[in-house]
UniProtKB/TrEMBL annotation:
Family the entry assigns: Belongs to the heme-copper respiratory oxidase family.
Subcellular location(s) of the protein: Cell membrane; Membrane
Biological role stated in the UniProt entry: Cytochrome c oxidase is the component of the respiratory chain that catalyzes the reduction of oxygen to water. Subunits 1-3 form the functional core of the enzyme complex. CO I is the catalytic subunit of the enzyme. Electrons originating in cytochrome c are transferred via the copper A center of subunit 2 and heme A of subunit 1 to the bimetallic center formed by heme A3 and copper B.
Record pathway: Energy metabolism; oxidative phosphorylation
Name this protein carries in UniProt: Cytochrome c oxidase subunit 1
UniProt organism field: Polaromonas vacuolata
Length: 546
């Protein structure tokens, strides 16, 4: 910690701290500064997003028309499985940890994360894990091919790719747990004096709750895949029916992890949106306390809804009713959030820069995904729609239009603070409209395919599904190219410092109304060391005084 405290006592001499940044490759390999580690996480997750996206485009290429064109069914299932695993564990989760690393210390007035070296370790663990995951394609028998849920008994019958995949998931899980411990300790112990928990930015609240969720459920996944491993190699029969095991038990254990995991991937997104909507509505967030309680309610309820993924496994009617009603109940705190965002915008002095466009787009498209989720919570309907493209449409509306749109919104909102230059507004708006239209062209037809009975994870399909599949495939390629455009024409220029220099707070109007928070109290770009001494806060805990 001495590195954090042996600099200038005055927090406002931060411009002088640039010379303390190490140079060259050592700065990144041995990084202990939360900003550098945040940048590493974000670049890593975008790389994995592109890799997972290429796998998705191979799937859509195969599904462009009926019949087998490019890949055989076995490879198709491997692509499906690896697309899911890479997007969840390699793209979405690390990206939100990147945002947490960058923004939480800035938002709470802390000099850095609590455990700087553990922070470095938790990032670098992800590199060998992701290489292991990607390498499974080249092993005998290929990559895991039982779906991203790695259900038994399929997972008990695969080649060594499954074992390597299990090992990679263990390492990724360890990285997540370390990152979560770091976030919890930082938020609880390192807030600036005067910043009580109920004055924290919503992004910090959502991440605090997410970190507790991660610590609770990652060991559950570790248990499930360890039992799979011992079934495969050590003669146990947890999930092997031939030895008295129960494959459905794997589903129960997996989804006890898997459903809170869904909220792990969306709660930080809620936090980002809760920062952006007030800034561009030029109002305070409506119902701050109710937003905090709603986030906590979602986290608690997420532990009692897992078996809504399992309505077709033959559970008793009582169980179906319990999971049906608890799933419907979780829509209430989620609805509270949506209504609070709308109430924040109501009669606000709104402007629609790119972060606000993505935030409003998020609310629109995430709500569609939420409503299809309520439909799927009804057991008799779900039994018809189970494992069809309706489910694929639902969770992509929640995860792509939810998690990914919030990340884009967060990038456009905070990148001036990260890079010191403004992104190109016209290009940002092109990226938004291109992504929004292409996304809906890709995934909205899947609702109709699912309602018509097209099962997911199949490489071929009957002729009657051809038109909607062709539309979805074309949309998918347009969506993929939109993200290449984003990286080449928006991310790279801002990282190189090409653009109009950003003001300390670029999101305030002439009257000084707009974005508030401690992150806007430091220079742009944020100095290498910030808040070397705890800042003195005003009564709202959003501004530095003195």
């Amino acid at each position: 910690m001495s590195a954090l405290t042996d600099h200038h006592d005055n927090a406002h001499d931060e411009h002088d701290h640039h010379e303390h940044a190490p140079a060259g490759w050592r700065r990144w390999v041995y990084a202990t500064n939360h900003k550098d580690i945040g940048t590493l996480y974000l670049l890593f997750s975008f790389t994995m997003l592109m890799f997972g996206g290429v796998l998705a485009l191979l799937l859509r290429l195969e599904l462009f028309q009926p019949g087998l064109q490019f890949v055989n069914p076995e490879l198709f299932n491997q692509l499906t499985t690896m697309h899911g695993l890479i997007m969840v564990f390699g793209a979405i989760m690390p990206a939100f940890v990147g945002f947490a690393n960058w923004m939480i210390p800035l938002q709470i007035g802390a000099p850095d994360m609590a455990f700087a070296r553990m922070n470095n370790f938790s990032f670098w663990l992800m590199i060998p894990a992701s290489i292991m995951l990607a390498s499974t394609f080249f092993l005998p028998g290929g990559a895991p091919s039982g779906g991203w849920t790695i259900y038994a008994p399929l997972s008990l019958q695969m080649g060594p790719g499954m074992d390597v995949g299990i090992f990679a998931l263990h390492i990724l899980g360890a990285s997540s747990i370390m990152g979560s411990i770091n976030i919890i300790v930082t938020i609880l112990n390192m807030r600036a004096p005067g910043m009580t928990l109920m004055k924290m930015p919503m992004f910090c609240w959502t991440w605090l709750i997410t970190a507790y969720l991660l610590i609770a459920v990652m060991p559950v996944l570790a248990g499930a895949i360890t039992m799979t491993l011992t079934d495969r190699h050590f003669g146990t029969s947890f999930f092997n029916p031939a030895g008295g095991g129960d494959p459905v038990m794997f589903q129960h254990i997996f989804w006890f992890f898997g459903h809170p995991e869904v909220y792990i991937m969306i709660l930080p997104a809620f936090g980002i949106i809760s920062q952006i909507i007030p800034a561009f509505s030029r109002k305070r967030l409506f119902g701050y306390a109710s937003m905090v309680y709603a986030t906590g309610s979602i986290a608690i309820l997420s532990f009692v809804v897992w078996a809504h993924h399992m309505f077709t496994t033959g559970m008793p009617v009582t169980g179906q009713l319990f999971f049906m009603y608890s799933t419907m109940l979780i829509a209430v705190p989620t609805g509270v959030k949506v209504f609070n965002w709308i109430a924040t915008m109501w009669r606000g002095s709104m402007s629609f820069e790119t972060p606000m466009l993505f935030a409003v787009g998020f609310i629109f498209v995430f709500t569609i995904g939420g409503l299809s989720g309520v439909i799927l919570s009804v057991a008799p309907i779900d039994i018809q729609l189970q494992d069809t493209y309706y489910v694929v449409a639902h969770f992509h509306y929640v995860l792509v239009a939810g998690s990914l749109y919030a990340m884009f919104a967060g990038f456009y909102y905070w990148s001036p603070k990260w890079t010191g230059v403004m992104y190109n507004e016209t290009r940002g708006k092109i990226h938004f409209w291109w992504s929004l239209i292409a996304f809906n062209v890709t995934f909205f037809p899947m609702h109709f395919l699912g309602l018509a009975g097209m099962p997911r994870r199949y490489a071929d399909y009957p002729m009657q599904f051809a038109d909607f599949n062709a539309i979805a495939s074309v949309g998918a390629f347009f969506f993929g190219f939109a993200q290449v455009y984003f990286f080449v024409f928006i991310v790279i220029p801002t990282m190189r410092g090409k653009g109009v220099p950003a003001k300390q707070n670029p999101w305030v109007d002439e009257g000084g109304v707009g974005a508030v928070g401690l992150e806007w109290e430091v220079a742009s770009p944020a100095p290498f060391h910030t808040f070397a001494t705890p800042p003195k806060l005003d009564a709202s805990a959003t501004r530095v005084i003195g």
